[in-house]
Write a structure and sequence with these properties.
Order of helices and strands: EEHEEEEEEEEHHEE
Shape: globular
Number of helices: 3
Strand order of the largest sheet: 3-4-5-6-7-8
Strand content: 25-35%
Oligomer: single chain
Largest sheet: 6 strands, antiparallel
Radius of gyration: 20 Å
Distance between the termini: 25 Å
Length: 200
């Protein structure tokens, strides 16, 4: 049964993902990055908020972990967040934020409406819930299918969803099975999703 809208949907907040920041070059391991503009957009592409982000990932650490800090600055926020790099099993380093509220290592931080700071999801406790928790099971399946397609094939995906060139067949088959599962849970999806000519 869907929840009543008693808690704030998490998606109304602003998100910072350490992996995206590294991919976009705003945070660079082993370097000091100068303040760069970062914008949060809504589903229509309009700006919701903006801030300047600078990072220093050159701070030495006593143990094998690497450390650093990132500053988020705008008229509505002035926060410094600690970062830590942990060795990966097969080499390299995985970077995390250190949640300012709980001290836990997290990949994503959230700033909810009317707040001036970022924290990890668990620090927000029961005051927030994911938007999908407010949907009925069928609507949740539709929402999950749309989200999967948007993330994998992009917002302009056509009804036919061929295997992307970069994707492994095993991953493609797993995603195809996921879409089939959503289809069976949703009944009839609002559009037809085709994978190699098969309707899912």
């Amino acid at each position: 049964m869907p929840r009543h809208l008693q808690r704030t949907p998490l998606e109304l907040g602003l998100q910072l993902n350490i992996n995206r920041l590294i991919r976009d070059g705003l945070v660079q391991p082993g370097k000091v990055t100068q303040p760069s503009s970062f914008r949060w957009l809504d589903d229509e592409g309009d700006e919701r908020a903006s801030a300047r982000i600078a990072a220093d990932l050159t701070i030495p650490s006593a143990d094998k972990a690497r450390s650093g800090k990132m500053r988020i600055h705008a008229a509505w926020i002035n926060q410094t967040v600690q970062l830590v790099g942990r060795p990966r099993h097969f080499g390299g380093v995985q970077w995390y934020f250190v949640c300012p509220a709980q001290g836990k290592h997290v990949s994503v931080l959230w700033a909810m409406p009317r707040t001036r700071y970022f924290v990890g999801r668990k620090a927000l406790g029961k005051q927030v819930a994911y938007l999908s928790q407010y949907h009925s099971p069928g609507a949740r399946a539709n929402y999950s299918a749309e989200k999967l397609i948007k993330r994998t094939w992009g917002p302009d995906a056509s009804d036919e969803l061929p295997k992307p060139k970069w994707m492994r067949w095993r991953t493609y088959e797993r995603l195809s099975n996921k879409l089939q599962k959503f289809n069976s849970e949703a009944g009839v999806l609002p559009r037809l999703f085709l994978l190699d000519g098969d309707v899912v």
